[in-house]
Amino acid sequence: MAALSLDRQITDLYETVLTFVKTFAQSADAEDIVQEAMMNALKHKDQYNSSKGSLPVWVRSIAYHGFLDFKRKKKRRNEIGLSVLLSSEERIDSEKFHRVSYDPTIEEPTDHSNLVKLVGELPSKHRDVVIRGYFLRQPYTDIARVCRIPLGTVKSRLHAAKQELRLKIAS
């Protein structure tokens, strides 16, 4: 019996690699990552060197690097989504995008991209204070000064925005 072709050996690893990727990625994302990894492995099969490691290890390495690329792209999409919500007059330090607060009163965590979309749907007066208060973690006094509104108005707008977001998340 002839040895299996390299193409066939790579495609036979699909389930093994999928199980591996699911250990660190969500199921739906894992399938996309593995499909991309399998295509890359097949495309670059001439670069496989058996003296450096086994084929399953090589394909899993491609999948892991694909996962890292996926995370970077997803992070970038979320940053872009947030920057669209911010007023154009303000320059934002990109590090501040990663300091998103968790609200313990909401039982289930919400997908970040979904949260950005929901915040984007808020009325502008609520959206501005939510972005400044929770995403950028600006003190309420700074928000009041920049938005030229009283401190009590900042607090009431944040409260109203959180109520509206809770309703949207629950529905």
Notable traits:
mainly alpha, 8 helices, 171 residues, elongated
Biggest beta sheet summary: none
Q: How far from one another are the termini?
A: 59 Å
Tally of helical runs: 8
* Mean pLDDT reading: 79
**Gyration radius, in Å:** 23 Å
Say how many strands there are.
0
Approximate shape: elongated
What level of helicity do the residues show?
Answer: 55-70%
Which blocks of ≥5 consecutive residues have pLDDT under 50?
87-110
Determine the structural class based on helices, strands and strand pairing: mainly alpha
Compressed to H and E, one letter per element, the order equals HHHHHHHH
Proportion of strand residues = under 5%
How would you characterize this protein structure?
About 65% of the residues lie in helices and about 0% in strands. The chain contains eight helices and no strands. The protein is mostly helical and about 170 residues long.
